[in-house]
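Batch job 17 of 40 flagged for manual review because the log was empty.
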Amino acid sequence: MSESAESNMRDDIHQLVLTPLADRAWRLRDQAIGRGGPSSLVAYVEQHDDGMYEAVWVSVGCGTARFASLEMLFLAAVQMLEQCRSLGALKPDPIPHRPPAHA
């Protein structure tokens, strides 16, 4: 990885913040998108009894993933955010037109 890419990744990590929900549960938000907005929510995170962190991806990717450390979780979140940004806005599938019922 190039030095500038590593620097950008470190900058992106600093835009992510964990907001406590309970003793071992957090929201992972991207502050670059704005505070409190629903699109800033990246994942819900819980720490299990075995010490592993489980992320339920919300605005990036789908499904869940488990991580041995918060650092690994943050790195994965940054990668997912970068993939989403590189895809840009996706155009919706067109709805096929139908002829009028009474022509």
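Reviewer: the log was empty due to a logging misconfiguration, but the result itself is present. The chain has one domain: 3-82. Unflagging and moving on to job 18.
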